[in-house]
Amino acid sequence: MTAGGIAPHIEALADDAWLLRFAPGDDANARAHVLAARLRGEAPAWLRDLVPGWDSLGVCFDPAAVPADDVRAWLLAHRDHAPAAATASAPVVEIPVRYGGDHGIDLADAADALGLSPAQLIERHAAPLYTVAMIGFAPGFPYLAGLDPALALPRLATPRSRVPAGSVGIGGAQTGIYPRESPGGWRLLGRTPLRLFDPARASPSLLAPGDRVRFVAIDDAAFAALERGA
Amino acid sequence: MSGPAWRVLRPGALTTVQDRGRHGWRHLGVGRAGALDPDLAALANRLVGNAPDAAVLELTLSGPTLALPAPARVALCGATVEARFEAADGARHALPGGRPLALPAGTLRLGAVRGGLRAWLAVAGGFDVPVVLGSRSTDLRGGFGGLDGRALREGDALPIGKSRCNTVPAGADAPQAPGWWIDLDADVPRDAPIRVAPACADAAAALDGSRWTVDPRSDRQGLRCAGDPLAIASPEQVSAAVAPGTIQLPPDGHPIVLLADAQTVGGYPRLGHVIAADLPRLAQRRAGDALRFVAVSWDEARAAWAQRAARIARLEWAIDLALARDTAP
Predict the structure, then answer these.
(1) Measuring CA to CA, which residue among A215, A189, A175, A222 is closest to residue A92?
(2) Nearest C-alpha of chain A: how many angstroms from B9?
(3) Class of domain A92-229 as given by CATH
(4) Closest Cβ–Cβ partner in B23, B29, B197 for A140
(5) What's the gap in Å between the CA of A164 and the closest CA on chain B?
(6) Domain A9-81 coded CATH 3.40.50.300
(7) B130-134 — which CB contacts under 8 Å span 24+ positions?
(8) Rounded to a whole number, what is the distance in Å from the CA of B25 to chain A's nearest CA?
(9) Which one of A35, A152, B83, B87 is CB 3.0 to 4.6 Å from B95, fit for a cystine?
(10) Each residue of B133-145: pLDDT tens digit?
(11) Are residues B21 and B76 in the same domain?
């Protein structure tokens, strides 16, 4: 650790990967994104993948191209450069959401459990500017940081076997979007007609780690129109 | 030459198109996928004159039955496959593994996989499915890559790519195999303990010498351990990157070793990592097989990897030598 205790701790993740863990704190995730962007910019030939987590960054390398210890030394030399303010320039992506009804089957129950009206829950869910803390679980599934803590909801005791693609939900203190039909245990508030992940697109994922997201409530007509265009 | 597509008559238990896997997309939640033993898949490719990253079929537990409309050069590596060829005249021939096989048009019947769980079938020219995000591997969880992002089904057509060396003699009506083969037996006994680099001292104490059996719910995403649950006081963590080899400990106390289809991030406490040299061996364990872990250092892990790499290099050299001899004038 260096002065201030902000430098990440490095541990082995595999024969071909290191994991940097940042000191827990408000800006740990932002530091992960900034460091990832910096390492991606340097683009050493052996770099295969950079995987941001909530307060960490996985670094995967080609073990045939470089000794693991050289990668570790390189990371040690680069890890202190993490001005968190740089995330303010991250792109903002608007996600249209049809809340409630068939598109968000848990909205009424969730509002009840939180002591809110459905309209209030929608308003408070759509208010913040979220950050894509990381993408995981499935290709293109964004874990969004910035949920109003008063909206935290426990996951279902038994996950549903089928959650429709585009479903927007709350699980614990997180909110996120299911990119394709899959099992899932989050409370479903609504659905977006946008396609979050398409491997045939040049940019397969609509969102990237570090991006910022704002939900915009739409009605059935807008949903149908966007779905036709998607 | 590029041959006509093969027809899948029976798909086998879980047969997927795989290459060496997908890199560069993990930040978007796209895992590596790829053959569970990329080196053996590459050796199978080498036997038929392909580049190491050509797409192969990965067989699990039982193989497919395939209709070959034209002659083809193929090779099988991995666990032993009960392989038979049925020629147009109805004659049946047993097919050996670990060597190039020149097949006339006919039916390739790949049956039970024995002495392990998985094997890889290469064909000269490779299985020519589209490249998606830089790889032909099937991403079963994402539903893309390979053949429509899924395992083979009856009636599928498998496109075959152009071959650099099409040396299948025209007019032959029986399979032809050389008198040599490569010895694929590992340098480590198949049932030897699986070596693990532990995450911490507690994990080392819990894993070292622990005995498990392979849970039947295991798949390409993770090998689940069945047995007496571990009670380690390790706090739930916020999600961070995981990798093939990572050993997670879910609340039920039964470790899960992530394999090639691993998700990219995970929040379960982690006990350590199966070393890369032993992951292919682990992926050959079948449901109900005994499983024992032993703790090693990362230095030992790297030494084991270098040893395995040297062994693969010797096999590559032996294949090249034998192929050159076979085709000498």
Answers:
(1) A215
(2) 29
(3) mainly beta
(4) B29
(5) 15
(6) no
(7) B132/A199, B132/A200, B133/A199, B133/A204, B133/B22, B133/B24, B133/B25, B133/B30, B134/B22, B134/B23, B134/B24, B134/B25
(8) 7
(9) B83
(10) 999 999 998 999 9
(11) yes
Q: Which ipTM value was assigned to this complex?
A: 0.93
pLDDT at A86: 56
- Helix (H) and strand (E) counts for chain A? 5, 13
Q: What is residue B165's predicted lDDT score, i.e. its pLDDT?
A: 62
Give the Å distances, CA to CA, from B12 to B8, B163, B221, B222: 10, 26, 19, 20
Verify whether the Cβ–Cβ distance A197 to B142 is below 8 Å: yes
Position B218 pLDDT exceeds 70:
yes
Rounded to the nearest angstrom, the minimum Cα separation between B68 and chain A is 30
Residue in chain A nearest B306 by alpha carbon: A64
Question: A208 and B27 in contact by Cβ < 8 A?
Answer: yes
A80 backbone φψ class: left, alpha, beta (φ>0; ψ -120 to 50): alpha
Angle B274-B279-B284 (CA atoms, 0-180°, nearest 5)? 130
| pTM as predicted | 0.94
Q: Which domain holds residue B281?
A: 194-296
CA-nearest residue of chain A to B139? Answer: A139
Residues B146 and B262 occupy one common structural domain: no
> Is A55 close to B240, i.e. CB distance below 8 A?
yes
Chain B residues within 8 A of A200 when measuring between CB atoms: 132
Task: Say yes or no: B182 and B199 in one domain.
Answer: no
Q: Are residues B92 and B127 in the same domain?
A: yes
Chain A residue closest in CA terms to B242:
A13
Enumerate the domain spans of chain A.
9-81, 92-229
Residues shown for chain A: 230
Kindly determine whether residue A63 and residue B276, on different chains, have CB atoms separated by under 8 Å: yes
Any domain includes B266 = yes
With an 8 Å Cβ cutoff, are A48 and B243 in contact? no
| A34 in Cβ contact with A86 (< 8 Å) | yes
Please name which of B269, B278, B251 lies closest in space to residue B203, comparing C-alpha atoms: B269
What tokens does A168 get?
């927007």
Asked if residue B249 is part of any domain, the answer here is yes
CA distance B276 to B291: 17
